[in-house]
Write the structure tokens for this entry.
Amino acid sequence: MYPASFDYLAPATLEEALDILGRYGDDAKVLAGGQSLIPLMKLRLAAPRAVVDINRLPGLDTLATEDGGLRIGALVRHKTCERSELLGGRWGTLGAAAPLISDPIIRNLGTVCGSLAHADPQGDWGSALLAMDAEVVARGPDGTRTIPLRELFEGPFVTSLAPTEIITEVRVPDPGPSAGGTYLKLERKVGDFATVGVAVHLSVADGRVGRAGIALTAVGPTNLRATAAEEALAGSELTDEVILEAAEMAAHAAHPYSDTRGSADYKRQVVQVFTERGLRSVATSLGAPVQAGSPGPVTSEASLEATRRQDYFSGERTLAGVMEELEEKPGGPDGGAP
Ligand SMILES: Cc1cc2nc3c(=O)[nH]c(=O)nc-3n(C[C@H](O)[C@H](O)[C@H](O)COP(=O)(O)OP(=O)(O)OC[C@H]3O[C@@H](n4cnc5c(N)ncnc54)[C@H](O)[C@@H]3O)c2cc1C
């Protein structure tokens, strides 16, 4: 389907863009990578009277550290994050999420800030950045304000952003010297939206967790923070017991619904398994190996079995990876996939 007709405007300055948005009010849409807006317009789920293309605005493509924190400008593409050497180590949650976003075509054009403004509960950046306590900087007719991500997401595809505001960048605070994270995503096939995603970020000092961030994708009306799990981890040593308890709490924080991607119970189980896996891998990468403290099983056999049965191609990034995983499935390439 073709989109309804609209005025296309490509301002050269931020002030000009804000002026246009002010004139059209909620009848205008900002266009960044267009990877969500254009499909919505083609389906006529969105029919703005004006599209304000911000791609010519200068100074919005910065991906850099500043005063220990990280700045990601409004025109930084998923691809730039995927290829950036900056996004390892302390920013590992972001580095792990970037290559799991859709496919290379979407990653070439889509932007991090566009993804946040779109507020899809299945968006991967929302969780990765929530776990890292990020905030967006928004410019509007009344000046600049910062909005913590937990206050930005109000519901599925709904944010606290005014229609006359433009996100100019997202800022991630300094996670401290000893920090790391990861992002685990279950998808039905490469390039799919998440069935479930879990972002884990930890900062560690003297063998104890300083700050913990755990955020969940596709298991609620917005990207969700598992705050009880975060609080249980903060100040604790990473024992088996603490990790298992946090994983269970994260599963409780999820509010999934059953759909073609899996049942609500299954998705909750995946949250639990992924949170545990994520915590263990981050602990190891930070040199804070998990202390044995609990006689209980690491993950219940039921959880593992549920994941084994449905975890096809989870996290595979390349065709070769998918083929390898297929070979390992019972029945080989012809009989493995559902
Ligand atoms: C087939 C397909 C698969 C996808 N798979 C995934 C996936 O696996 N994981 C994932 O996370 N995402 C996925 N996406 C979404 C993709 O990541 C989009 O790029 C992203 O959601 C939107 O970024 P964009 O720059 O393209 O924004 P646009 O499409 O340009 O805009 C999206 C919305 O945000 C607003 N907006 C954009 N930038 C700003 C700004 N700076 N200030 C204020 N408002 C702004 C727009 O007005 C619009 O309402 C997929 C998309 C498609 C089409």
